[in-house]
Structure formats: C-alpha cells, structure tokens
Amino acid sequence: MKRAASEFSFAASHLDHPHIFGQCRGLESAGGTLKYAYDRDPQRLDGFCKLHPGVTKLRSFEEVLAADDVHLVASAAVPSERVELGLQVMQSGKDYFTDKAPATSLEQLESLRRGVEETGRKTFVYYAERLHNDAAWRAGELIEAGAVGRVLQVLNLAPHRLAKPTRPSWFFEKACTGGILTDLGSHQVEQFLSYAGCESASVNFARVANFGHPDSPNFEDFGECSMTGDNGASFYARVDWYTPDGLPSWGDGRSFIVGTEGSLEIRKTLDPSRQSPASLLFLTNSDGEEEIDCLGQTGFPFFERLITDVLERSETAMSQRHAFLAAELSLRAQALADHVWD
Amino acid sequence: MKRAASEFSFAASHLDHPHIFGQCRGLESAGGTLKYAYDRDPQRLDGFCKLHPGVTKLRSFEEVLAADDVHLVASAAVPSERVELGLQVMQSGKDYFTDKAPATSLEQLESLRRGVEETGRKTFVYYAERLHNDAAWRAGELIEAGAVGRVLQVLNLAPHRLAKPTRPSWFFEKACTGGILTDLGSHQVEQFLSYAGCESASVNFARVANFGHPDSPNFEDFGECSMTGDNGASFYARVDWYTPDGLPSWGDGRSFIVGTEGSLEIRKTLDPSRQSPASLLFLTNSDGEEEIDCLGQTGFPFFERLITDVLERSETAMSQRHAFLAAELSLRAQALADHVWD
Questions:
Q1: Which of A99, A125, A338, B80 is deepest in the core (most CB within 10 A)?
Q2: Which CATH architecture has domain B9-126?
Q3: Mean residue pLDDT across chain B
Q4: What is the mean predicted confidence (pLDDT) over A173-195?
Q5: Which CATH class is domain A130-299+331-340?
Q6: What part of A 291-310 touches B (C-beta under 8 Å)?
Q7: pTM, two decimal places
Q8: Strand pairing category for B56-57 and B33-38
Q9: Binary contact (B284, A226; C-beta < 8 A)
Q10: CA-CA distances (angstroms) from residue B52 to A21, A205, A243, B37, B45?
C-alpha cells in the first residue's frame, strides 16, 4: 500500500529565483508539508515565510542539511550553484528538487549524475513549462493515447518577459545562468523528449545572440536550436526575452506538434487578444478540429508522483535519465552556439 | 502618366499546377485581360477556358510565343520545365509570370537570371503565401511602418494538404519538383527576406525527410531550414505535407515575427476550431494587444504593381533580385539537406 502524501515533508532553501514559489505550491497542493525555509537574504526569507504561515525559519543551510524530519529540499538557487547544493542535500540523505536548469556546465551535470548514483538519492527538476502547465501536460496524455499518431516534430516558441528592473545582477551573467539555451532551452528540450518519446538526440544547429542589451555584454536575449531525436523526430525551439510590454502574460509560449495522424497546438499561458490566463489545446486529426480548454483541469499530477517516488523510491514522475538528458542536450546546444558565434 | 491596367493583356500557358487559377485571378482583378490560353492537355485546357469565357484557345506553345498582342505569359508548368519556358517567353519579347518555385536547380536559376539580363524582360514569381494573402501582406505593411521595431526573427510553419489522389505523378518526383525546400520552402524564404529586410542570408541548417510515404521514395513529406540574414535576423521554417484530413483548409500556415519592440502572429488561412477561411494578424507591442481581421481587406496590391511594372518597365511589385534570391536560398537549403542526409 502506498504511503500517504501527508507523510511527506520538505524544506525550501535558496530562494534566488521566484520559481521556488511554484515548486512549493505544487508540492503543497499534492499533500506535502513545507516545514522549514532558509535563505541567505533575511528579507526575502521573511517575504517567503509570510506566504507559508506554518513554516519554521532556519538560520543556515547547515541547519537545512541537518533537519532529519524532511524528505526533500526544494531550491531555486543561482543556477551555477545548484549542483553543489544538490550534492550536499543528497549527501545529507534527502532528495533534491531544483529549479531548472539543474546545472550550468556538462562537468557540473556529470557530478550531479554521480551524486545521484553514489547517494541513492534523487534529483527532481522543475521543468515547469510542461509539468506545471495544464495544456502542456494534457498534450502529453493525448499524444500518449495516440491522438496524433507518431510524432514527427515538436516546435516550441518561448518568449519570456525580461522585466529588467526586477532581475538580480546574476541574471545577466552567463557564468551564473549558463546562457539562454541552458536556461530557457532546457524546458523546451524536456518537452521535445517527452512528446516525441526520444531516448537521445543530437544537436543540429544552435545560435545565441544579444540583440538589444549592449549594457549587459554577457547576457543573451535570443537563442534557437534544432535537434533530431534517435527516432527521427525533429525539434526546433526559439527562446527569447522579447515579450512585449503590452502582453498580459510573461510570455506567449506555444508548442506545435506534428504527427503522422494529426497535429496539436498548445497555447500555454494565454490566447492572444482574447483571454488571459488561458491554457488551451487545439487538436486536429482525421476526426476534425477540437479546441480543449485545459485551465485548471489536470491538477498537475507530476507533484503527486514526485511525492510517491520519494516515499516509495519509485520512478513515476520523471526518470533521472530523462531529467538529466534534457539538461545535457540544452548544455550541448549552448556549447555549439557559443562555439559557432564566438 | 501611368498607363491604365486595362491596356494590359496576358496569356496563360502550361496549366500543370492549379496555382495558375490564382495567378490569372490576381491579374484579372487588377484590371488585366486574359486573351489566350494553351495547355498540352486539351481536357484541362477546356476546363480552364470554361472559367474564363472570353479567352481564345491556342493550339501550341509556339502560338503563345507568336502572339504579339499580349505583354506577359502566366504559367504553372511542371517546376523543372519553368526556366526553359520562361527563357522562350522572354526571348519572344514578353514578360513571364511563373508559379513558384521558378527553378529546380541553381544552374537553371542562373540561366533564368541571364535570360532576364539578356532580353531586358522580367520574370515575376507567384509567391502566393505572402502576395496573395491578406494578413501576410498587411503584416509587411505593419513591419514597414515600424510596428514591431527591428525584426529579429521570422518563423514560418507551413503544413500543406497532400490530397494524394489528386496529385499528378510528377508531384512525387524530386527531379520534377526540386524537393520540398525548393518548392514549399521558397514561399517561406521569400517572406523572411521581405519581413526582415535582408539583402542576403546564409543557410545554417536544413533537413528533409520522407517519414510516411515509402511507396514514393523520391518524395519528401517534411522539410525544415534555418538561415541567418546579413542584418543578423534569424529565420526558421518547417514545411510538410501533414495537414490533417479534419482541417477545413489546405494548411494552417502561420508566421511568428519577433521584433525589438513587438511581435506579430499571422494566421494565414484559418483560425483553428473557430473560423475558416480567416486571415488574421495578432500584433503585440508596448501599446497592448490587437487582433486585426484582414480577410478581404488588402486587394492584393502586388498584381496592380506587377501590371504597372510591365507597362512602365519599373520595379515596384518585387525586384528581380529579391525574387531570385528567395529561390536561390531555397535551393541552397535543399542542397544542404540533400548533402547532409544522403
């Protein structure tokens, strides 16, 4: 018999990126209990704790590591620090749930993989653009059920709002973020691997650019990459920080999936000029067209599965292999882009 | 003073692709007179003439070439025959209006360019997906007016319905069509050059595949390519023959244009699950979002300009350079794809 999600407790540590709110909300909604929180910035920690009234503030990361009544540490640290944190978390006997991207170099990623093997603990990655999005999640279920036949291509458009004044300085430093393909790209690659059912892929082409931010020379505001999966499926993604100010969402994220028997469009955040927020699917196959309103419909099963995997030591939410492969391919795309355009 | 479009007469010859109907309709709507028609298939010629009651049937292509009371010959021949036809048309002292793609090899294209130079006549190309589409045309005007700032990327999705039983045998032979990037790709490249204002571009990556038609081994049902323009603008296009049977249009063609100050989505043929036909623009910039219904709104100014260019020997509709560059880049993408995947 499965243990109840209510047995599951976790801590939040390193709140550098606001994705930590989504990570914690997801786990709490699935029945988990947030027990402890820590951040090096006391003001940010206070703000976080106000939104989580039952949480106990800790005074150091060492206290987080020492807490033996939590199963997992959720974290959204500066990306370049995520692997080192994760290794310490896993060595302390807990699982690790990091914001994407989990690593900013292939070397880091390799040591994270080794850490998982050596400790027997797990690293989960918050690839929110699929895992915490109703339409993106539902798309996977439809594809799994054969709604579009064999997937031939996954194409993602992922504009994001820069909101420059709200960003910390590390956000503009590639040494901290790993670059736009490592960061925003990892979401897209993860969707490709999921929707197209690839076990591996090779990078055909990748490019990054800083078109409009000469004052931040180490910042990339545009990236694109193309891959081909081991099963022949094709992948293209554009990522950028060019969401216009007038859009009532952080970004008009879309996926277009072409299959042998049908096609899918995912409007992840809004229906431009019509509805915001929205989470819509457009399925077309031989039966005709169908518009599917997904907003609030899935309950984001990833989080419940994650909790099950922690308690049962199973692998139902996302395999370690898949989570790391998405990161690895994003890093490889980034490396190719860096090489080509240096 | 400009001469009136009513002075403009043309012939239609080689009706192999139904695009000839759109070409003639465009010229007639702009005031031109279709005087003569010829096709090697008498039945097809009869069908065409029934739709154009005033037209005189000719018995051979030689009679078309000899007709000295038309300014131009419109043609939608088998693609591999288009250059040879065009050379003969121009040598007979008339301008040539061919369906895209104008050529199926770089060598052919070069001889077409030479033909234009040597005869002083013009070759127009029917890049219908922009020239004969309200929203696509209007997008160009908005970009020209600065609605999205500097264009950073043009991304096109161009699925087409195969309708296999309706296709002639040459359609499935690459020796006749030049391949999917040469054919469908040329539309997309033409839009890239127009919207992004590029004078040249290089091909980063290209791929073609035959995923689902093993019975037609020389057919390509999928293609993709990436380019970078001389001004740094990025281009990606996917072309395919995978429009699902249930779509009430030949294809859900889209363009996504990212600029420094805003973005544009073009829904060229329909609004999936909502309206078909449709010709819609979605403009987002710092002012907010705007949905612009373009269907029937532009009058397709290309055709009137084409007639002016023929009568006045001007170059207002589309420069020869631009028309041929779009074809050349498509051919280069095709060549790269053929090379990589051979």
A1: A125
A2: 3-Layer(aba) Sandwich (3.40)
A3: 97
A4: 98
A5: alpha beta
A6: 291
A7: 0.97
A8: parallel
A9: no
A10: 66, 49, 49, 9, 11
